[in-house]
Target: Alpha-(1,6)-fucosyltransferase
Amino acid sequence: MEALNQRSLERVVSQRALQIGSSFPCRICVIGFLCGVCLTSLFLAALTSFGAFEFGALSISPAISSSTNPTSGECNVKQKNLERWFISQEKLTVGGDERVSLLYSSWGNLVTQSANEDTHLGKSNLPKAPHLEDCKLSAEINQRLDNRVQNDSFPPWTIWKGQLNNIPWTAEDEQLWYYRHQIVSEGTYPPWIKGSDEENYPLTRKVQRDMWLHQHPLNCGDGNVKFLIADWERLPGLGIGAQIAGMSGLLAIAINEKRVLVTSYYNRADHNGCKGSSRSSWSCYFFPETSLECRDRAFKLMKQKEAWEKGIITIKENYTSKEIWSGRTPRSWGEPWSYLQPTTDINGSLIAYHRKMDRRWWRAQAVRYLMRFHTEYTCNLLNQERHAAFGWEAARMVLESQHTDFSEGVEKVAEHDIENFVWSSHKPWSPRPILSMHVRMGDKACEMKVVGFKEYMHLAERIRKHFPDLKNIWLSTEMQEVVDQSRLYPNWMFYYTNVTRQMGNMTMATYEASLGREMSTNYPLVNFLMATEADFFIGALGSTWCFLIDGMRNTGGKVMSGYLSVNKDRFW
Model:
């Protein structure tokens, strides 16, 4: 009886629910709910197809795609950014830009595959990615340019760049081969120096050639060859910039004492990204400072008591902090710092002279030598970042200029000699002109005058008055508040690494620890190298990091681009 009553009750409830469900108001509610679900799904799908994309350990986002959470004082500006963003989404969805998305994703897979499988980037049937570099090929070329050929005094350095040296020779080219050999024997053109002599610090080419010779003696086993073996600085609180500055001082000591500098343990390369023998070594990121033969010889001599007694071996601990950080600049080339080009602007005036011109010139030469060639690992990091930052624009640009449907698996057209040997040496594409800006704030206030982001942007506007086509900014900063403030400038396109940044008064040491060793090393070095290639640079000379970026630019053909600084070095 109880079961019968239960079934009767269920039947009554079901009939009542059916009556309610068939009513007009209820039908309207259900239809509205389903439409809401559909619209939400479409909106989420749009969000995942545009904006910030991630590849590998790092990613970069155009600022326009991250304009969220506006404050009340920013509503008008933010609303315009959001409107522009939604319009872009609509065009991508309705206008059929799925091909751009597909090509972007395909290139991304290629970048990941190239990094993980050590393959050539250029062997894909996809359209050529103008913003990417064939890292394996570049490493092979650089390896050849960093080693002597047979009994020559120098590697094959000529005015023939990149792949031109690989052009097949014929019997008729004997005279050309003779002249080429003559140029190589003089070592006049170290290939890591770009631009004319006037576009670099004085004597840059000669100094770089002589430093390479000093660090690569013909016979490392010669009893007259002496060594200085040094770990990289590991003192708490010292950043990458300070480590490089310290090693620059040790390189100066080695040259003054006619020793070959051999670097040892590098704590920032002690992570899983650096494989094999490159782990815990500078050679994970850049070519080693000396040859493998010299390194092996130096570490072998370290175990011999006689080598210590005769002074053949010295180490970092043999020198005082003053000798390392502010020691005598090598005078082997005279005093070329006496006539440095006055292209640095501080407070609207060019700086023609200051008390530390010798240090500025020397550190520029030292950092250029130590970073003369990227390793394949560093090249892959740069590829990942360029793709995250510029890949979408590059894909759209390529598809607009070509009408081939790459999704059909079209066989790649054979390239001609000019493509293989000439154009292959061109640097990866990026939107030009582009301004690099390094904003240093936070705990740096204890060492230098710190100014707000508004002052940096004031300098950016000064540059744009003279170069009105400038609209792109590569923004490098540890502070989240700087990234947030960049959204107040809708007439600029900002690019920056998508990484967790400092909030509040967090110290740099605590911040780096929160990121982990691999991330806290990789993303600053990528930002550093991107800054050296930008058309213009704004920074703070009171920051060692900016000081070194400036040095790399002034030995990389960028002297006449100038440098606008928000402050001066504290030692000037």
Summary: The two ends are 101 Å apart (CA to CA). The longest helix spans residues 376-401.
